[in-house]
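Typical record was shown:
=====
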Amino acid sequence: MDYEAVIGLETHVQLKTRSKMWCGCPNQYGAPPNTHVCPVCLALPGVLPVANEEALRLTLRTGLLLQCEIPARAKFDRKNYFYPDAPKNYQLTQYDQPSTRNGHVEFEFNGTLSRVRITRAHLEEDVGKSTHFERHSGVDFNRAGVPLLEIVTEPDLTSADQTHAYLNALKEILQYGGISDCDMEKGMVRCDVNVSVRPCGTQALGAKIEIKNMNSFSGVRRALEYEIPRQIAAVRRGEKLVQSTRRWDDVAGVTEEMRSKENAHDYRYLPEPDLMPFEPAQDWLDNERASLMELPLARKQRLMREYQLPAGDAEVLKNNRALGDYYEPIARLSKNPKLLANWIINNLQARLVEIMEKEKTEQASLGLEPDEMKFTGLADLKFKPSDLLDLVEMVARGALSSASGQTVLAEMVASGKAPSAIVQSMGLAQVSDAGAIETLCDQAIAQNPNPVADYKAGKEAALNALKGQVMKLSRGKANPAMVGEILQRKLRG
C-alpha cells in the first residue's frame, strides 16, 4: 500500500516594530541580557498592557496580503501555561476571535501553481529565552513582549520540497510588505510542523506528529525528509502512531520524541480583561488596501508578460525588490527591455557586488562589526538610471560593442559620467561602416590562409578564428554581427 504525507505549519514571525507589543521597550536584537525590559514586560504587579498600534496595523496588512478575511471584531486572550521564560505565567494571544482568517498563499512548485489555505494569522507576544549552563539556567527577557504573528495553514502540503517552497513564498510576501525582515539568524521566523501519513486516496488524517521550534527552512525540509519515511515505515510494520511532539536533531539528522500528546493541551484560554476588543475602522482598512504593493508572484508574471522577460530574469527581479524597482521605470522607456534586464542583472549587479566586497574589506579593517557596516547600493550610484538605458540602447543599435559597453559601465560607476561622453573620450565607438569592415575582412583572410582553408573544407568553427582576427585588427571596435556576415559572404563566394 502506498502512503502520502499531510503537512500543516504554524509559522511565528516577528513583526517589524520599533517597540514591543505592550510597552515602549525596544524591539531590538543583540542587546545584553535583560537590558530591554520594564515592569510591563517583566509582569510586575499592578502593570497594564497598552497595544502597539503599528503591530495591529501590520497584522491587518498581513491579512490583506494573504487574501484573508478581516473580521469586524477581534480580541485578545490569555493562554495559560507555566514556563520559566513566561513572566506572566500566561501568553497574550488571540484564540476564538483572531484579527484575520480564511486566506491563502499561491506559489510556484514543480512548474505549476500551488495554493495553501491560511486558517488564520493572529497576533500574540513572544516570551523570554532560556539558556541552560552546566550547573544553572538563566532567562533573558529582552524578547518577552515582542509582537509575533502566528500564521496557521490548513493541512494542504504533501511533501518536504513543497513545504520548503511555501515557506520561501511566505517569506517573500512578508518582506515585500514590510511586515518583517524574516532574519532567520536572529530568530525572526520559527516554525512548528504538523505531519501525518495516510493511505493514498483516503481522506481521514493519521496521528498528528508535531516537530517543534524549527528555526530554518532547510531544517524543516530535512526534518520532513526524515520524518515522513519514518512514519510510513512504522505504519507498514503494523505500529500504531500516536499524537506526539518531537524535536529535530540537525546534527544527527533525526527527529526525537519529546512527549506524547494523546489530546490537545488544555491551555484554559480566557478573554484578556485588561485589553479592549480590536475593531478596525473602515477608513483604516481602506487606506491599508490602497497602499498594498504587488505580490511577488504577480510581479514575476507581469514582468514576463509586459517585458517578455525569460522566467529566470523575472525571478531575479522578483527576488531582489530593489533591483526590480530600479529596472521597471527605465524598462517602460526602453526599446529593448530584455537586453536592459540582462545588463542590470548580469553587469550592473556584478559591479555592485565588487564594490560591496571592497567596502566590506575596508570597513572590517577599521574594526566595524557587520551590523555597523554600510555599503553602496543602487541609490548611491553616481549616474542616472537613464544613463544606463542610453548605454544599453547604444549596444542594441550597434554603436558600441558589448565588450566596450562593459568598459563604459565601469567608468560610469567610477565617475558618474554619461555613456556618450565616455565613448567619445575613450574612442570606443563601434565601427559599423560596411566598407571599412570589408577592408578589415580582406586583410584577415589574406593573413590567415589556414582558417580560410578549414572553413572552406566544412569546418564552421574556423569562422570564429577569422572573426577574432578582424576584431583584433579593429581593436575591438568592429560590429561583430557585420563581421560575421561579411566573412561568410566573401568565403562562400
Q: What stands out?
A: The first strand starts at residue 3 and ends at 14.
